[in-house]
Design brief:
Layout (H helix, E strand, L loop, with lengths): L2 H20 L3 H8 L3 H30 L1 H21 L3 H28 L3 H29 L5 H22 L22 H6 L2 H16 L7 H8 L5 H27 L3 H24 L4 H22 L3 H8 L5 H29 L1 H23 L4 H4 L23
Helix pairs in contact: 1-6, 1-7, 2-3, 3-4, 3-5, 3-15, 4-5, 4-7, 5-15, 6-11, 9-15, 9-16, 10-15, 11-13, 12-13, 12-16, 14-15, 15-16
């Protein structure tokens, strides 16, 4: 790992550490600590998500034209202002505006960081680079949440102000680290697009069949897993399985622990296999996770068995996440024509954000009241992941599907390989 990559990974981890201080407590802060009510808290959370959906469609083109570094620095500064303002917000309007700034900034940072990792890696090192980022981000989120939980006091608004201030400082640290990174020049776009692809960012992406299929697969992945963690699955656990709030915390901790422990052990397995088959295996693992969740809420075992099955669900999700982190993000980069890496990363980030918005809206009510249909629905979605992954594999070149085949090849400046005409 070169000096530039080390700095990128350190900045990414520290920003995740800052985010971990506030994310678990945002609803409580707005609704109870600032006494704005649950309705205002819902609007604030919606503003956070909607801001991301607004800025992501234009982020990719800016990254490809100006480079990821200035975009990352600007996004970090916006997020820092949003976090600090939210810590002092005492009205609904200021809370909504602050949350929108925070949401927009953190959303833009994702594709900017991903593009920087692409520029500083090669296809043979990219898998490990993204796995390291995912590992460090989860570690940072976990430690930040743990420390934040010890600081926070719902009876003292100043304790929340401190949390948001720490988050704001971490974003400034990310910006300071980023400006010290020396990135290679962006490769030229000419000659990298399929012959029949139009010379336009969005049109070229939409005409790229493999990327479109990956976006569909990505939506299902995030909808069926991440979109259920803090909404449908937690509601199902409480209502159907009799899980206590403290046990929900243990389940989330089990998820993070599996990711941290298994990430690099899983990496050795992933690096030697086709990406499409790895993603298909994740679908099967998550199907087993939903079966375990079904037993927890619909089975007739003891409460102890139900609790163990529910925690196992989160642990199995963590195993799948550890397999996806070195697989999906590098694949997005390897599919992108040189000069369009930012647009591809932003498009996939937008798909993720949409799934995270739709997932709770669909899964929340189902998990709370339609217990059997909820489990069956997301069991089928998980199996659908496997089917979509196998279909995607047919659109990929051998090297895109299994980068280890190209270890002997050198790609200048870590640029993604050209997209062959057969992939579009």
């Amino acid at each position: 790992m070169g000096a530039a990559m080390r700095r990128i990974q350190a900045g990414s981890a520290l920003s995740a550490f800052g985010v971990g201080f506030t994310v678990p407590f945002l609803y409580v802060y707005v609704a109870q600590v600032r006494d704005l009510g649950s309705g205002a808290a819902g609007i604030v959370l919606a503003a956070f998500a909607m801001a991301a959906l607004i800025v992501l469609p234009i982020t990719g083109r800016v990254i490809d034209r100006r480079g990821p570094l200035p975009v990352l620095v600007g996004a970090a500064l916006v997020a820092s202002v949003g976090a600090l303002a939210l810590g002092f917000a005492n009205s609904e309007v200021t809370a909504i505006v602050s949350a929108a700034l925070l949401g927009a900034g953190t959303a833009v940072m994702q594709p900017a960081l991903a593009t920087m990792i692409v520029w500083c890696s090669t296809p043979s090192t990219r898998t490990r680079a993204f796995a390291m980022q995912f590992f460090l981000q989860n570690l940072g989120l976990g430690i930040g949440g743990l420390i934040g939980g010890q600081i926070v006091d719902e009876h003292r608004a100043s304790s929340f102000t401190l949390l948001f201030s720490i988050e704001a400082v971490m974003f400034l640290v990310l910006a300071a680290i980023a400006v010290t990174v020396r990135l290679p020049h962006s490769p030229s776009l000419q000659g990298t697009l399929p012959k029949d692809a139009p010379r336009g960012g969005l049109r070229a992406l939409v005409k790229h069949k493999a990327m479109v299929q990956l976006c569909v697969l990505g939506f299902v992945l995030f909808f069926a897993c991440y979109g259920q963690f803090e909404s449908g699955l937690s509601a199902y656990g409480v209502e159907a399985a009799g899980i206590s709030p403290s046990t929900l915390g243990i389940a989330l901790a089990a998820n993070t622990a599996v990711i941290v422990i298994a990430q690099f052990a899983v990496l050795k397995f992933v690096e030697r296999r086709k990406r499409s088959r790895v993603i298909a295996a994740v679908g099967l693992i998550w199907a087993v996770a939903w079966i375990a969740a079904g037993y927890a809420g619909l089975g007739h075992g003891s409460q102890a068995m139900a609790t163990a099955a529910f925690i196992s669900t989160y642990a199995l999700f963590g195993l799948g996440e550890a397999m996806l982190s070195p697989t999906v993000a590098p694949l997005v980069a390897d599919l992108a024509p040189a000069g369009m890496v930012g647009q591809y990363n932003s498009a996939f980030a937008l798909v993720k954000q949409l799934a995270l918005a739709v997932g709770p809206a669909v899964g929340g009510p189902m998990g709370a009241s339609l217990h059997g249909p909820y489990i069956v629905t997301f069991l089928l979605f998980s199996l659908g992941i496997s089917v979509l992954a196998i279909r995607l594999g047919r659109q990929l070149t051998p090297v895109q599907n299994q980068p280890s085949l190209a270890k002997s090849r050198v790609v200048a400046q870590g640029a993604p390989e050209p997209v062959p005409a057969a992939s579009s």
